[in-house]
Write a structure and sequence with these properties.
Helix content is 39%, strand content 0%. The chain is mainly alpha-helical. It has a domain of 100 residues. Bound molecules: heme C (4 copies).
Length: 169
């Protein structure tokens, strides 16, 4: 591991200490937009970005519906199924110096969404005609292909014919 300032260690410690984990605040999808414009646009086209709008005014106050259509509304005041619903609250990982470090970003809360995470909402009770198919569903919410071809290469190791030198340090 590269040497980092002790203040980074403090930040990591504060986060991983029991009780602190999961306490990161949400910044809202607009906060990701500036650095991930392609992902943001693709997400905006998805039903996740409008999930709360499917509910009537009465249902918008019903915790049973909100648990999947706006799971972060009561605790974080963020509606719909947003970036941070899946990737974790951005308070600690969103700063540029953290985002550039994939390992550190994950230590302070960035989540790689799993099939299991999708299934917390896409379960037998959700009104789908077909059972949830993870591979198909992933294709339908693809916001990473655009991100990767937009000139940004979030994953240094991802194979690409383009020169990786462009904007990377
Ligand atoms: C200041 C700019 C900035 C902001 C704000 C930002 N990101 Fe990032 N993010 C980056 C950069 C740069 C990378 C690529 C890191 C690299 O090159 O390895 C990245 C990588 C990622 C990755 C991929 C990580 C990996 O290693 O595969 C995800 C997922 C991500 N960001 C989600 C988000 C979300 C969600 C938000 C909003 C809460 C957000 N980012 C806000 C700059 C930002
Ligand atoms: C367990 C999670 C979950 C709960 C709880 C839930 N929903 Fe949903 N809902 C979903 C999912 C997932 C979908 C999308 C299903 C699909 O198309 O694959 C959906 C779709 C819908 C749609 C259709 C939207 C469209 O674009 O066609 C409506 C309307 C809806 N839900 C209303 C409600 C109401 C009202 C409640 C509360 C009584 C509720 N839901 C509770 C997960 C949930
Ligand atoms: C429904 C859950 C969900 C939502 C909502 C969501 N993402 Fe993702 N995101 C994923 C999954 C799953 C992947 C990984 C796909 C893969 O590589 O197989 C991903 C991948 C990414 C990546 C690419 C990581 C890489 O390896 O290149 C970025 C960047 C990202 N998301 C940012 C965002 C931003 C910004 C938003 C909001 C505008 C957002 N995501 C909303 C589930 C979600
Ligand atoms: C917090 C709950 C939640 C999580 C987690 C979640 N979803 Fe969803 N998803 C929903 C809801 C609610 C809808 C329906 C939105 C609406 O139309 O109102 C939906 C809709 C969708 C749709 C659109 C279905 C259609 O009819 O077009 C796809 C595809 C989808 N989700 C894929 C995923 C994938 C893949 C993951 C995991 C990476 C995931 N979702 C995680 C709640 C969730």
């Amino acid at each position: 591991m590269r040497a980092r300032g002790p203040w980074i260690l403090l930040l990591v410690l504060a986060f991983v200490l029991p009780g602190a984990a999961g306490a990161a605040d949400f910044l809202g999808p607009e906060s990701c937009k500036g650095c991930h414009p392609a992902a943001y646009e693709a997400w905006m086209q998805s039903k996740h970005a409008r999930a709360t709008d499917s509910l009537s005014e009465t249902q918008k106050k019903d915790a049973r519906c909100l648990s999947c259509h706006a799971p972060d509304q009561s605790a974080q005041s963020v509606s719909h199924v947003t970036c941070e619903t899946c990737h974790g609250g951005g308070q600690y990982y969103a700063p540029a110096y953290v985002m550039k470090d994939a390992e550190l970003a994950r230590l302070v809360g960035l989540v790689d969404p799993s099939e299991k995470a999708c299934r917390t909402c896409h379960d037998a009770s959700s009104p789908s005609l077909k059972p949830f198919n993870f591979v198909e569903a992933l294709k339908a919410i693809d916001h990473w292909s655009a991100e990767r071809t937009a000139g940004k290469q979030p994953r240094a190791e991802s194979a690409s014919p383009e020169p990786a030198t462009a904007k990377k340090k």
